[in-house]
Amino acid sequence: MTATTVTSPSIAGAQTRLVSLDILRGITIAFMILVNNNGDERYAYWPLKHALWNGWTPTDLVFPTFLFVAGLSLVFSFESRLAKGVSKISLFMHALRRSIILFALGLLVNGFPFFHLSTMRIYGVLQRFAICLLIASALYLWDRGAKSKIVVIVLALVGYWIIMRWIPVPGYGLPTRDIPLLDPDANWVAFIDRHIFPGRLYEGTRDPEGLLSNLPAIGTALLGMLTAMWLRTKKSPQAKFFGLFAGAIAGLVLGKIWGHWFPINKKLWTSSYVLFAAGWSLLGLSICYWLIEIKQWKKGWTFPWVVFGSNAIAVYVFSELLPALLGDVHVGSKHQSLGGVIYSHVFAHVPDRAFGSLLYSLCYVSVCFIPVLILYRKKIFIKI
Question: Is pTM beyond 0.70 here?
Answer without folding.
Answer: yes
